Amino acid sequence: MSGAESNAPAGDEGSRPQGSQNDLSGSSRDVVQAGNVSGGINFYQRMPGESASLIPRQLPADVHAFVNRTDELHQLDAILTSSSGDRLVVSIHVVAGTAGAGKTSLVLHWAHQVKDRFPDGQLFVNLRGYDPGEPVTADQALRRFLRALGVPADQIPQDVDDAAALYRSLLAERRVLILLDNAATVSQVRPLLPGSGNSLVVVTSRNRLAGLTVRDGARRLMLGTLPEPEAIALLRAVTSGYRPGDDEEKLTELARLCARLPLALRIAAERAASHPHMRIDDLISDLRDESALWDALSTGIDEEAEAVHSVFAWSYRALPVSSARLFRLLGIHPGPEFSLHAAAALCEHSLSRTRQLLDDLVSAHLLEQIAPDRPIPVPRLTARLRHWPGAER
Question: I need a labelling partner for 343 at 20 to 30 A (CA). Which of 4, 17, 82, 258 fits?
Fold first, then answer.
């Protein structure tokens, strides 16, 4: 660096004589030309070959054997209103649904299809809102994103509001796709929203995150279980090359026993594919045995493999105490559907209080309301709580 050189006499800082000049010889990457300088001058110097504008590419790999969800993919495509994707309908989109419905798979698959429309990069964080450990805070996520956008760690503000302001400033003139996976609360998400510009935030959650819709103008996509033909297509896609001769009627029964839930279907299909000589009747028999249901749908591979038992246990543990109690009591109801009055009789609460508790379960996507007075468990696997390890709270 070459600083300013002046012909002014030493000690006469206010003097600016005619003919003062700055001379520079040799080469320099960083030059400051100034009359008076107070304080220090700092440069963040890039390493040789480092890009002047860091472009993050944080998307995890696309989902293997992704099938179906055509309507939902079209709804996500509708966010981009032109072939070039130069304008957004909304800047925040929430994909909500029950545990294991395939929210992350859907969003990742779509993101890989449209990533070229976001030339300034893609940011991704798993907020771990329902994991057994501590969730990722907005402050932690902000720091990760700022580092990914090229801010040195020692220059990231300690105050979360200041860090969020810097983050918004960096995104203001950029077009970035931001995926916030597995959010439990609005407070995890809001500091990670861009203030303006053409960046898009897509959030996945087991809750509806109504605050983002009401205050921040988010659009919501509700992700349910798969229709039967699509559930069977998913089973065939995962087992393709391993079990080509499985009977359509047997696959239909297997899909129904898995409640047409993508996570359960993938786990069951993976088990079938890894045991190509195992009769599909044996797997169906295991799933029919309610006492062995959770073991049958466990991968047994490692802790990262999200077995059905685990994802529902996490959703259940996040419930308020009264709602969790009602959820357990619903396990003794004989049918897959029940009325508000039946639920009130089970929990011995008033209709209005029972309705509040049912709303909690619907918000957590552990129930689905199919008529004004007819909620059902979603998926119906949740009705088997009598045999669910971990539902003892």
Answer: 258
Cα angle, residue 203 at apex, residues 197 and 207 outer, rounded to 5°: 140
Q: Is the link from the previous residue into 379 a cis peptide, with omega within 30 of 0? A: yes
DSSP state of 37: -
| Distance between CA atoms of residues 274 and 251, nearest Å | 16
Q: How far is CA 49 from CA 1, 45, 53, 54, 148, in A?
A: 19, 11, 12, 12, 17
Cα–Cα distance measured from residue 344 to residue 354, given in angstroms and rounded to the nearest whole number:
6
| In the predicted structure, residue 9 carries a pLDDT above the cut 50 | no
Q: What is the dihedral of CA 203, 209, 214, 218, to 10 degrees?
A: 10
φ/ψ (deg, to 5) at 113:
-70, -30
Find residue 126's DSSP bridge partners: 181
Tokens (6 digits) for 179:
């995926």
Q: Is 341 exposed, middle or buried (0-12, 13-18, 19+ CB in 10 A)?
A: exposed
- What are the tens digits of pLDDT across the range 75-128? 999 888 655 556 677 899 999 988 788 899 999 999 999 999 999 999 999 999
Report d(CA 324, CA 315) in Å as an integer. 10
For residues 308 and 320, what is the distance between their CA atoms, to the nearest angstrom? 21
Q: In whole angstroms, what is the distance from residue 95 CA to residue 102 CA?
A: 10
The answer to whether 324 and 312 have CB atoms below 8 angstroms apart is no
DSSP codes of every residue in 157-198: -SSHHHHHHHHHHHHTT---EEEEEEE-SHHHHGGGS-SSSS
**Rounded Cα–Cα distance for residues 332 and 328 (Å):** 8
Instruction: Tell me how far CA of residue 65 lies from CA of 266, 364, 376, in angstroms.
Output: 10, 28, 30
Nearest to 225, CA basis, from 98, 95, 363: 98
Which of 217, 185, 189 lies closest to 363, judged by CA?
Answer: 185
Distance, CA of 376 to CA of 324 (rounded, Å): 16
